Amino acid sequence: MTQDQLKQAVGRAAIAHLVEGEIVGVGTGSTANCFIDELAARKDRFPGAVASSEATRRRLEGHGITVYDLDEVDRIPVYVDGADEINAAMQMIKGGGGALTREKIVAAVAGKFICIADAAKLVPVLGRFPLPVEVVPMALGHVRRELAAIGGSPVLREGFVTDNGNLIIDVGGLEILDPAGLETRINQIVGVVTNGLFARRPADVCLLGTAAGVLTLTAG
Ligand code: 5RP
Questions:
Q1: pLDDT in tens, 121-150
Q2: Exposed, middle or buried: residue 201 (CB in 10 Å: 0-12, 13-18, 19+)?
Q3: What span, in angstroms and rounded, lies between the C-alpha atoms of 136 and 174?
Q4: Is 38 a catalytic residue?
């Protein structure tokens, strides 16, 4: 199976985890796009969605799915999103698409986080994928120096501005043995909006696309 076919398989598998009649939280990226296309075929069963990015909002609306602002909804029972890396504890690196802050906000509100990923995303230790950090533009130099002091190699994502009008620094060279500790530490740097570690709020379930089929993983 190709990587695209694995993404389609997990996008389809996520449908079974939704709560009919309830708002769906929708993530960002190529795997989330596969989920959106599956959701579109069943859109009459759901009142609408909350989007984690403007790109996702546009794709949902293109399918005729109603998109609500987060403040318009009382609850989001299930949030479905991809990941750049996920470990056995269901902790993730996210933000390859630069939507990490809105993704983290929607995930914080959601009852359940369903991560959909192809097999290549499952790793023993997070950090091979450069960790995205969203930064207020005037703090760029300060945050870059602080991230270098932590031991990473911070690189500005050239030509990229987030949906929130901020910049992204991608931090390479990290071997993240304490994801929750590093998530907190980086968030304490003044000028950081958030970082792409989803360790304090990990996924509840990972639907992993493999050649042998879709595996359902949980922590512990
Ligand atoms: C976007 C994300 C994505 O979920 C992550 O980058 C995975 O993307 P893809 O499904 O295209 O591999 O965090 O900000």
A1: 999 999 999 999 999 999 999 999 999 999
A2: middle
A3: 22
A4: no
